[in-house]
Amino acid sequence: MKVTSQALALLSAILLNTSSAFTTSVQHRATSSSSSLAVTNDLFVEMTTETGAAAAAGTANTHSSVTTYYGETLKETADLQTNACCTAARPAPQIAKAISNIHPDVIKKYYGCGFCVPDEVEGMTILDLGCGAGRDVYIASQLVGEKGRVIGVDMTAEQLKVAKETQAYHAEKFGYDNVEFHEGLIEKLDDIPSLKDGSVDIIISNCVINLCPDKEAVLKSCHRLLKPGGELYFSDVYASRRVPQELREDEVLWGECLSGALYWNDFQNLAKQFGFKDPRLVEDAPITIENKKVQDKIEEMGHKNLEFYSATYRLFQLDCLEPHCEDYGQAVIYKGTIPRFESGWSLDDHHYMEKGKVFPVCGNTYNMLKETRFEKHFDFVGDWSTHYGIFDGCGTSMPFKSSIDGVSTKGGGGGCC
Question: Is the dihedral of CA 129, 135, 140, 146 positive or negative?
């Protein structure tokens, strides 16, 4: 599909306001120039040195451009130019069943990159950041049930219009109405009065934080809104290294969620900085761009080895977690009681616990199970009396298993994320 002149114009507007949005700590050590950047931390920079009205105007223009692109230029999923913002993995049966109940107008305006509703959510309060037309909200609505609650937030009026116009349809289909939608920025969740500190069990997001110019504000708000033991469970796009400036200036790559992708280690450090001390990777898949012009451009610029991944992370709001996985000689035994997982259950991509089997765990995994909604599904062995050092296998290499052999861990295959 050819890129329309309207799309290029809109994406150019985005770049003019955000081309310096992801300058890294390596760059901030360079000699300053007229376009020098303000360093907000030692990871990367997301804001220019402009202050006051100029900075506010730049941010407003960025939000306006992105809103127009996703609200007007993209009419449906087929309008995307690459496969970065689509989902190839086959959904689990209960997700597939939930999707089958959703209005077609909602489905065709879906631009996410994963299935980001975790297990054991019945009766929970879920907040969806960047909910768009509401696909994941209406999936979660069915999973939390009548006693649960789902809140969607998005800045795109055109998308929210679809979500709200189909709300009555879904209420009739499900037999209850447990959703609400708010127009607003996910960087400014404080502006939504109904969102109180410690009021949310689970926060989900689907390929949206990647596009946000102020990720620090998002993560800080998530930590504040979650109840102790709650979690941020989300899918997004990540890079194997920091994306070079010349690629960040490419219109199509920016609009398709690639050039704004965070380097995976920058993301992990940022998450820890704002209270999520042990980010856990749930699943990942390599992104094959499936657009020869875009792929050729990346290679011609000398960045053939730059890789992109779709990944789902879970970040628990637990102050008791440590920065690394420490060994206290503890173990857990899964009871087989989480619905649909009678034989075994996975906390993340390297913790599959078989029913009835003693499973050694680090202190952080122990607390992720004992101090959360999962406690009733496990027996716990050991205490905190003796520390045996770092837990075996706790490393700091790139976490994506699909980077080794190119095979998705999402269970469905396909090149799309």
Answer: positive
Phi then psi for 48, rounded to 5 degrees?
-80, 170
- Distance (Å, whole) CA 399 – CA 255: 26
Share of the chain above pLDDT 90, in %: 57
Element (H, E) at 94: helix 93-100
**Residue given tokens 């009021």 in the structure block:** 199
Alpha-carbon 300 to chain mean position: 30
Quick one: pLDDT at residue 269?
94
The DSSP string of 283-336 is EEEE-----HHHHHHHHHTT-TT--EEEEEEEEE--TT--SS-B--SEEEEE-S
What angle do the packed helices 157-165 and 167-174 form, to 10 degrees?
40
pLDDT at 214: 87
CA distances to 127, 137, 144, 206, 298 from 180, rounded to whole Å, are 10, 9, 14, 18, 41
Tokens in use for 109?
Answer: 């305006």
Instruction: Give the tokens for residue 170.
Output: 């879904």
Query: Taking CA 15 as the corner, what is the angle to CA 84 and CA 37, rounded to the nearest 5 degrees?
Result: 115
| Amino acid 58: pLDDT | 39
pTM for the model stands at 0.78
Three-class SS of 120-152: CCCCCEEEEECCCCCHHHHHHHHHHCCCCEEEE
Which of these, 306, 360, 295, 299, lies nearest to 333 by C-alpha position? 360
Identify the segments of the chain with pLDDT beneath 70. Answer: 1-89, 113-114, 395-396, 406, 410-417
Q: Each residue of 34-55: b (16+ CB within 10 Å) or e?
A: eeebebeeebbbbbbeeeeeee
Task: Supply the pLDDT for residue 84.
Answer: 55
